[in-house]
Design a protein that fits this description.
This protein is 40% helix and 15% strand. The protein is α/β, with parallel strands linked by helices. The protein binds pyridoxal-5'-phosphate.
Length: 462
């Protein structure tokens, strides 16, 4: 059906409250309205095509327009549209729980479904507290997470988010959360106060992991329940773990009996070429939180996956985990997730990422000849390009400059050139790229060419 663009524009401006959106931007320009998708491309209401360089929001692993997933949703809705998981079950939730447990490393065998990522994070934190209350360590409740990391917007998930600017309007938040340094190797010297310069990644990884032990010691191990870490931290622009980081974190968590939560809301389901990021980097979490790619976005779904040890106290007598969401594990979503994972297996989606990630990296690294590109980093189909004023000194932009560069110019210019991605200034200014996992060299080239034109222009405007 054709869309009446003018009518939609006006209705959007009059009624739609967009998320994380500076609405004044649309006083003088159109709201971008996307109406259709096919493979890694999306089209706006006026018929213009864009490469979906962010998989929507790290979600559309298989790209758009997969009729098998739409059919799976329709079939399930016809058969059983809704049943909660509150003391009842339905087949696709059971089958998906079994399947996800089978993919998850070690004895991460217990799957608690949610509607999205933030709810999975809430669930993990509440489980950590509840578990320790039931096992004789009732004071263990505090959470450690990393600077600049994003874990969601509900009050708990926001509390462990390391972005003061996102939190200020909502303080006071949930108390008892503490931040440790992240693994931004490009800025290792600043992060370690000049102690390390980043030339020895293992030393930096060891140092960064040890800061978790310092935080636990400072708070008292008998008060700390969990540490929340992404395999590759998104906010700040893709910080992969330095070698040895996670094995040292695991040792620390074991030493202090602190639960390691791998927040894989972005990193799971192929983003890094494996079902889970923990698998890629070879560590064993106590919980995994995931969402987004589990359904490739054809329906909303999240999950918290816990080890057998963490569920054990809830398996006897009157104990129960007094927690749940009406739409957690929705039948349509779990049916779609099963069909999504079938395609992952039948079409070798993980293999595609592993086979092509080197080419993706190499293509993006071509941009390093531009005087505004300081760093290209990431793994899998998940990269950040950090923009700097000076590549030699790594001098970054001040807040006003970053605002002008990213919001004033880059976001719109990339979109105008046909690339949907994200220019992010939650840490140092970065362009984030996380395309659908079906992308190949032609799409990498298209991204590089558009970025080259736009970043070149950005530099000339400085
Ligand atoms: C690491 C991480 N955790 C949690 C969340 C929150 O997920 P949601 O927006 O589905 O609530 C996000 C969202 O991007 C995320 O990247």
């Amino acid at each position: 059906m054709p869309h009446d663009h003018d009518r939609l524009q006006q209705a959007a401006k009059d009624h739609l409250w967009m998320h994380f959106t500076r609405h004044s931007t649309y006083d003088t320009s159109d709201v971008p309205i996307i109406v259709r998708g096919e493979g890694p491309y999306i089209w706006d209401a006026q018929g213009k095509r864009y490469l979906d360089g962010l998989s929507g929001l790290f979600v559309s692993q298989l790209g758009h327009g997969r009729t098998e997933l739409a059919d799976a949703a329709a079939k399930q809705a016809r058969e059983l549209a809704f049943m909660p998981l509150w003391s009842y079950a339905h087949p696709s939730a059971i089958e998906l729980a079994e399947r996800v447990a089978g993919y998850a490393p070690g004895d991460l065998n217990r799957v608690f479904f949610t509607s999205g990522g933030g709810e999975a994070v809430e669930t993990a934190w509440k489980l950590a507290k509840n578990y320790f209350k039931l096992t004789g360590k009732p004071m263990k409740h505090k959470v450690i997470s990393r600077a600049i990391a994003y874990h969601g917007t509900s009050q708990g998930a926001l509390s462990i988010t390391g972005l003061p600017g996102l939190k200020a309007q909502f303080e006071p938040l949930v108390p008892s959360t503490f931040r440790v340094p992240n693994t931004n190797s490009y800025r290792a010297s600043e992060i370690t106060g000049g102690f390390l310069d980043g030339s020895d990644p293992e030393a930096f990884g060891r140092w960064a992991a040890d800061q978790i032990a310092v935080a636990i010691e400072n708070e008292g191990a008998d008060t700390v329940a969990a540490v929340f870490l992404e395999p590759v931290q998104n906010a700040g622009g893709c910080f992969p773990p330095p070698p040895g980081y996670f094995s040292r974190v695991r040792e620390i968590c074991d030493e202090y009996d602190v639960l390691l939560v791998s927040d894989e809301v972005i990193c799971a389901f192929g983003r890094l070429g494996h079902m889970f990021g923990a698998e890629r980097y070879g560590y064993q979490p106590d919980m995994i939180t995931c969402a987004k790619g589990l359904t490739s976005g054809y329906a909303p779904l999240g999950a918290m996956i816990a080890t057998d040890r963490l569920m054990e106290p809830f398996l006897h007598g009157h104990a129960s985990f007094a927690h749940g969401y009406t739409f957690g594990g929705h039948p349509v979503s779990t049916a779609v997730a099963m069909a999504n994972l079938d395609i992952f297996e039948n079409e070798g989606v993980l293999e595609n990422v592993r086979d092509n990630e080197g080419a993706f990296r190499a293509t993006l690294e071509r941009l390093k000849d531009l005087p505004i590109v300081g760093d290209v980093r990431g793994d899998g189909y998940f990269f950040g390009i950090e923009l700097v004023k000076d590549v030699v000194t790594k001098e970054t932009f001040n807040d006003a400059e970053a605002d002008e560069l990213l919001r004033g110019f880059l976001s719109k210019a990339l979109y105008d050139e046909g690339l949907y991605c994200r220019a992010d200034d939650r840490g140092d200014p970065v362009v984030q790229l996380a395309p659908p996992l079906i992308c190949t060299q032609e799409h990498f080239d298209e991204m590089e060419q558009i970025l080259r034109v736009v970043l070149d222009k950005a530099h000339s405007l400085l």
